[in-house]
Amino acid sequence: MTTTSMPLAKALNAGLRRAMEDDPKVLLMGEDIGRLGGVFRITDGLLATFGEDRVLDTPLAESGIVGTAIGLALRGYRPVCEIQFDGFIWPGFDQITSQLAKLTNRLEGRQSFPVVIRVPYGGHIGSIEHHSESPETYFAHTPGLRVVTPSTPNDGYWMIQQAISSPDPVIFFEPKSRYWPKGEVDLDQPAVPLHASRVVRTGTDATLIGYGPMVSVLLAAAENAAAEGRSLEVVDLRSLSPVDWEPVVASVEKTGRAVVAHEAPGFLGMGAEIAAGITERAFYSLEAPVLRVTGYDVPYPPAKLEKLYLPDADRVLDAVDRALAY
Amino acid sequence: MASTDPVVRILSHDGALAPTPPAEPYVDRVAALDEQALLGLLTDMVRTRAVDVEAANLQRQGHLALWAPSYGQEAAQIGSGRATRPQDAIFPAYREHGVALVRGVDPLDLVRMMRGLTHSGWDPAEHGGFRQYTLVIGSQTLHATGYAMGAQFDKATATGDPERDEAVLVYFGDGATAQGDTNEALVFASSYNTPQVFFLQNNHWAISVPVERQSRTPLYRRAAGFGMPGVQVDGNDVLAVLAVTGALLDDARAGRGPALIEALTYRVGAHTTADDPTRYRTAEELATWTERDPILRLRRHLEGRGVGRELFEGVDAEAADLAADLRRRVLTLQDPPVSLMFAHVYQEAHPLVAAEQAWQAEYEASYGEQA
Q1: Which residue in A121, A304, B90, B119 is a FRET match for A187, CA 20 to 30 A apart?
Q2: Which superfamily does CATH assign the domain made up of B21-330 to?
């Protein structure tokens, strides 16, 4: 096994580079992704290697990016679109949900639309409005899309390649608060398939479920709880559509308690789906209702308030206390 | 606007060969067409109208969910559709029934979609690159532009061989010019110098909103703002449309970049069969445009060239047969199986869809057992 230590941002860059080397039909499109290398530098250096026909600095128009990516897919290309920030995806929402998501269905399977849409998402970066949102639910709610989000450099390296080779459209959410911490990346083989959820810490008293930027928060919460003698299991969903229920349900059947956390507002969010799914599948194992720890149901606040908006380890452990009190 | 703007027209309203000055660069492309070729264009238009009228009737009689009539726009559609080469891709909106027919789409396939049996109906690969209808206004312009960008990356255009070089033709209406997607497509086309013609059928009405509400400037002039040629053509003159579209498609395939054509025409019918145009437009306006009927104009021209009545009667009879055959076949259509709903949501199995399909089958079967 060849492993190397790198941050998620570099792992995504390496994954994109490898996908482009493996398949000449893979091309990148987005705002400022070429000469600048993207505002987060995820595509740094790729223009120099692959040229202007494969790394497209597009006009500043998200619907245009997604709509033309669809046209390129019709010719057999595998476009990877970068949306610069989560809050800027909405001008492309119609092309994603009315066209990209539905075209395979509309064409009764006669054509594939292997388009990946990369979206840096989430908070913790102290930025101004529209730069810290978590819009994953809108896309997970849309039939025809696959939605995934890595939480580690290794997952970033492999999941971006797996997403690009999927015959279906994939919305690829990148936790921007996790872009720079380093982690080990296995360059030889992926650990699990694209849509697998995974237990990332074992425990016996309660199950913490999250994805993307929340996984490191849940791991910190579990670490703190361990110091107090509580054993918490942590599940990284990794895939939001489809959800890989088996590891989730197995964990809850073992612990009897579950807390779901995400940065996005709670109402009708992923946590609601996970809570309902667990209740339907493991009702007789539950000792307490599945509790949610989420962003508040308000617009993302000004940056000086984001620490109070975003779920942290303390709020997660507060929910664990409530679950254990049943 | 027509009085001050330079419309390309080759046949006058009474069918006389009378090119306007702006038509001069294009006339040569159609000057050599013989009576047989002109009768071919007439046949295409008459067939299109027969199918359109029959489909609208079928809708009125409850056999279709909806129909978007093409009545009155036959010259714009047949002229442009016949200007394409076999290797060209065509991205329609949803009213381009004439273009569909000339690219070999069975009218039954148009009707299957409008009956609610499918969201599409035909395989573009088997029908001259004529892609699916797109109902969200303007969306298809971006798909066409992306496809045209791909033609460049594939080096399938601008090689100097017009028999092989690809161009892309995309249809939209005056209403779509207000959409962001249409404007973004024009920007991208301009940025990437795509081999593409934007074919705007200005039929003067976006459902109930007149074109004057959409634009203070003649729409072809917007092309200048995107850095591409814009040509206004009499959309009820099939020869002018054929000549202009052919010229600009060949420019595009030769690497000279995208262009916008505004074809002035008129939606004689309703927007769709759910619409009532008498609520928003006058009988006088309608009468003006029915007098400019595109089929009538070409027929007058052919009469002027001595084509006899029996030939026209033959064209009409053949089109009537096509419509009658369409009606016969529509009435035999079967509803799709429930599996269609689940079959193509994803190309690779999705566990949620698979589970719901299995549940639905079991649920259906349980009813069967009780009965």
Answers
A1: A121
A2: Thiamin diphosphate (ThDP)-binding fold, Pyr/PP domains (3.40.50.970)
